[in-house]
Amino acid sequence: MTHSLVCADTVSRVSSVLNRNTRQFGKKHLFDQNEETCWNSDQGPSQWVILEFPQRIRVSQLQIQFQGGFSCRRGCLEGSRESEALSKIVDFYPEDNNSIQTFPVPAAEVDQLKVTFEDATDFFGRVVIYHLRVLGEKI
Asked: Strand pairing of 128-138 and 100-120?
């Protein structure tokens, strides 16, 4: 059965936070299910989120809700197992809007994921995400 795989024991890291204001724009807001909060990256050529899961997972979907005007034209999902090097799982192509977007993921069994947001729609390369969900099953 498919369900959200990010839990309290999932370790997350992000490329940057706007003005280093983690209280208002930090990574915790990616997963808090609050419509009023978001992760807001600082400017740069690409932004990323790394997730380290407490156990092996089988990913089937990635759901992302951007703020329109602050999304990306291309994304890349990479994964690894047991501290191996990351390898590409799939590229995805978000639309520049406020809707929750779902991207299918070819069956991948991993314990670490990296989501990279490339070619930002914002002139300065900032990305704003209200929700990030990794769907699948624990193994």
From this structure: unpaired
Contact 128, 68 (CB under 8 A): no
- Count Cα neighbours of 52 within 13 Å in the Cβ-side half-sphere: 7
Q: Span 111-128, mean pLDDT? A: 96
Q: How far, in Å, CA of 66 to CA of 17, rounded?
A: 15
pLDDT per position as a tens digit, 54-101: 999 999 999 999 999 999 999 999 999 988 999 999 999 999 999 999
Alpha-helix runs per DSSP H in the chain? 22-25
Q: Considering the entire predicted model, what is its pTM?
A: 0.93
Q: Is 23 in a helix, a strand, or coil?
A: helix
Q: Which helix (H) or strand (E) holds 70?
A: none
